[in-house]
Amino acid sequence: MKKLILFLIVFQVTWLSASAQKTEKPFRAHIYNKEYEVFMRLDLYSESITVPGQDLYGELPGYLGKKNNSFCWLVTSSKIDGKTAELKMINDYGSEDLTATLTVENDSLYVLRQVEGSTLKVPKEGKWQKLPKKMEFKRR
User: Fold this and answer.
1) pTM for this structure?
2) In whole angstroms, how far apart are CA 11 and each of 6, 15, 17, 94?
3) Strands (E), 44-126
4) pLDDT tens digits, residue range 81-124?
């Protein structure tokens, strides 16, 4: 019985700690949009994200990538204001840029809104696919 009580206490402390970490740093996350097969890797706090295979860019606040593709949109700077972050982004060619906001709706739902600048486009089957101005992402 003592082992069971000890296990429950340890489990509860671990669970509370993990839950607190998720909500304390909502802009340190890996989020995904299944419909368009795009994801975002973010660390807007310490700007420590590197794009796999593209170390030339160094450490960044994050990036938006496409499943099974090396193309990405780089987050070059960010500003957090409560549950919303303003993101400055450029494509990996440096030819297009935009401003977007990322809002945390709850522990697992994020909304990305393109505010101004170029339209987010990603490769799909040899063509460019425009992404909607407003997209929902889920935390992984």
Assistant:
1) 0.82
2) 8, 6, 10, 47
3) 62-66, 72-81, 84-91, 97-104, 109-117, 121-124
4) 999 999 999 999 899 999 999 999 998 999 999 999 999 999 99
